[in-house]
Design a protein that fits this description.
By secondary structure, the chain is mostly beta strands. The chain has one domain. It contains two helices and twelve strands; from the N terminus they run αβββαβββββββββ. The strands form two sheets. Strands 3-2-1-12-11-10-7-6-5-4 form a ten-stranded antiparallel β-sheet, with helices on one face. A two-stranded antiparallel sheet has the order 8-9. The radius of gyration is 19 Å and the shape is globular. 27% of the residues are buried.
Length: 252
């Protein structure tokens, strides 16, 4: 993860609150956020690229979708832009799409805590935001299930995750020669409705080590145009997130 905008990591125990209390607080807030998020529409732009040894893009997949509700109130994905993929060295699998939809925007709720080991690391400032830092890993990996493993930064006022940095596990190496590997990624959130921190930008730039050879992968996912379903007021993320790996910006 780029350290732009990040202060020194202070490893002393937090003052006036225990790590376990922080975990319980932010997991409860994350559950509340997850339930609220299910009532929002938004636009999602996915770009996946392979990069050659000269750092040139030699394959690309793109898709722009609107996550909306149909006339019956059911959440649906409407693809609005999807040019022909030029990826040749990798293929997009069902697991890849599931990761993009469900694990890149990692949410750790009270319902999820039984699956994860959450360890307090310290406190750190990201731009003007004071955060608690935790390392997260699955307690055990059940067959057929995917998990997040990495580090999260939690706002010390709102008790919500503002940055996630890690990877989706496990990688798959089947006896039939099938491989499904995931790059290390960072997801940034921004407080855009005055209450909840919404994912706005995910970036991955990693080398995947396939049996057939290494592949440099770059993924960028942008989330914009948040709007609460059934509300007349539209919440719009102010402009595109720049490509230079931004840090969260807490809006008042």
């Amino acid at each position: 993860m780029a350290d732009r905008g990040m202060g020194d990591l202070r490893t002393a125990q937090p003052q006036g609150i225990t790590p376990e209390q922080i975990i319980q607080k932010f997991a409860a807030k994350e559950k509340e956020f997850k339930e609220a998020r299910d009532h929002y529409t938004y636009r999602q732009k996915v770009t996946v690229q392979t990069v050659d040894d000269d750092k040139n893009v030699d394959g690309e997949y793109q898709q722009v979708s609107d996550i909306v509700f149909d006339d019956h109130g059911k959440r649906v994905e409407n693809v609005v832009f999807a040019p022909q993929s030029s990826l040749t060295r990798v293929t997009m699998t069902r697991e890849d799409f599931d990761d993009i939809q469900n694990r890149l925007p990692f949410v750790l709720t009270t319902d999820d805590l039984t699956q994860y080991q959450v360890n307090y690391v310290g406190e750190q400032k990201i731009d003007e935001i004071d955060t608690y830092v935790f390392d997260v890993a699955p307690k055990q990996i059940e067959k057929g299930k995917r998990y997040f493993q990495g580090r999260v930064w939690v706002d010390n006022q709102d008790f919500q995750i503002v940055v996630t940095d890690g990877r989706n596990v496990p990688d798959v190496h089947s006896k039939k020669g099938q491989e499904n590997l995931s790059p290390k990624f960072t997801t940034y959130r921004e407080q855009i409705d005055g209450k909840y921190w919404f994912r706005t930008y995910t970036i991955a730039d990693d080398e995947l080590h396939f049996n057939s050879g290494d592949v440099h992968i770059r993924e960028i996912v942008k989330y914009t145009n948040y709007k609460r379903y059934g509300s007349e007021s539209k919440i719009i993320f102010e402009g595109e997130v720049p490509e230079n790996t931004p840090t969260p910006n807490k809006k008042k």
